[in-house]
């Protein structure tokens, strides 16, 4: 009889209660030794493996664990250490490993950037001036460990050569093909040792295959995998893709490997099978359970999908698994003791997803009837949640349907609005402001946790927040800023704060996922219909405005950012959820305006990063994003000024959509790339007002006036002074008070000088 196997691609590293984070941070602060760190993390790693085995997964990944990041792990495996760090060759010492990731007193850290379209960040490999060679076979060590300690014949996981090289940076002009040739023998060395040690399956992650590669690049890919296959013919190599459908399916599916892993949740992979079939000589690892989301799978739907898949691949060549590594979801819902059972019943974190995979595998192998009880439980839980009050808000659904074109457009075009706004605010040329948050000192965090723990009353906490606001209104007045902010002292996180105050969200207790290094985030869960129920930010903004004659900007997180940084229900289209969030924010914007706040900033730092990997989906996403932003902001009077803010990214491709948001003013974080960014706006003759971060807030150094003058003057070469605002980059909440005040003073002085010169 055919045994259908279950598999998984990767497991969360952080531990159910973030034990991993604690271990790392204790090591960094010097309170535990390297040996203690390694012992503790080994315990976590083995626990993770043991759990996967107990749940009943057949192909358990090893080597997916990391002390920081799997891309950095791959770099150091090949001795790729930037020359600014001391490194004498051989196995890279742990201190050097962490220094590359975090910087040290002598050298700055490597760049960190987002892993495809996730909120996970990897450390960018730097290929300049290094000759890669295999200095440590990490997958082999993990493979041996699992075998020895737990008797698990694991499936080693490697970041594939093509993806690794594509994610790396180098200033040289070595062609891609040559770099691939340089790395191929190193991968072969790793794989040979794995084969010798007894590994049967190896997973080589190539998520980059979800993007188009050129014909020449594909030739190099084909050559590399052919060489690998010839060197280790006995290994069952899986080329694993995820996050989207494969872009060049014909080429990728023809690679000489044993198996191909495809994501059947994101992107229309099933259509590829329908159109082109699946190669007869390969095993398919079908990623049918969403590895990026926290909702329970509808097992019936998944079984139909698996039926459809089986019309292209027979059972004996089928392995069932999640759509991606479970790195992107929290560990287990077992830990959630405060959630309503109706909600809990609809959730599935990493462990629960693995159980779903086990059930699906059994059904495919032995027939649906063998999991009849599980199917029934699954159906009941989902029906209960779908029919619950959380998902049945007919008013919201109706309101959104009834929105007309004029509801989502400002009453007048920008050229006309800006005149009304200038009249209202009467700001000087080159107005100065900040992006919203002001230093969140230890005292602010302490007062908040006291209140959360019930050690102070809500009134005491609110009074504390008010005192902070007053103090900083005075400071901003004294510095001489033109447009003030209340400072966001009441917010821990710019999405969670809104999640707590809008209907349709829940915040979990332990729903943490790794964002970068030891840093974890706890995205709110959007489980139901999203609706405004109470003013969110009005109190603080109105209080701040009452203290000054200068305008105070209201400060909201935009709909796209809230969507992209949450776990979004998957029973209705994502864009519908987006519109609901937008509609709730529209209400908030109107409340602010009604209460005398006539400048409102709607932050969209996550707009760019949500851009789909698949080129053909981008327009749909951008149009939906623009539409949502306009739902939120279009109902205000002409002389109410809408601001937006975005963090640094490559804007060239989305500049038209940015303009279509129709925000009166946009501020952009640019410290990392002045020149490039301005060109995006200049080339496209952006017609609305712009503020570019004129100094990098990430450094404690107070910038000099000359430096700021230079930065401002550089911007003014391409941007009209009438259109230009002067502000620092976002994120002042991470700085201390003294530095912030000193730097803002210099900024205002520089602005005054340049203003006088115009
Ligand atoms: N208003 C926020 C701040 O100033 C914006 C944060 C962000 O851009 N991510 O910090
Ligand atoms: Zn920003």
UniProtKB/TrEMBL annotation:
Keywords of the record, alphabetical order, are: Amino-acid biosynthesis, Metal-binding, Methionine biosynthesis, Methyltransferase, Repeat, Transferase, Zinc
Q: Name one Pfam family in it.
A: Meth_synt_1
The protein, known as: 5-methyltetrahydropteroyltriglutamate--homocysteine methyltransferase
What family is this? Belongs to the vitamin-B12 independent methionine synthase family.
Q: Which residues bind L-homocysteine?
A: 435-437, 488, 603
MF-aspect GO terms: 5-methyltetrahydropteroyltriglutamate-homocysteine S-methyltransferase activity
Q: Which residues form the Cobalamin-independent methionine synthase MetE N-terminal domain?
A: 6-313
> What does the organism's lineage look like at the top?
Bacteria, Bacillati, Bacillota, Bacilli, Bacillales
This molecule's function is given as: Catalyzes the transfer of a methyl group from 5-methyltetrahydrofolate to homocysteine resulting in methionine formation.
Q: Identify the NCBIfam families for this entry.
A: met_syn_B12ind, PRK05222.1
UniProt domain Cobalamin-independent methionine synthase MetE C-terminal/archaeal: residue ranges: 430-752
Write out the GO biological process terms. Answer: methylation
Q: In which pathway does it act?
A: Amino-acid biosynthesis; L-methionine biosynthesis via de novo pathway; L-methionine from L-homocysteine (MetE route): step 1/1
Catalytic reaction(s) noted: 5-methyltetrahydropteroyltri-L-glutamate + L-homocysteine = tetrahydropteroyltri-L-glutamate + L-methionine
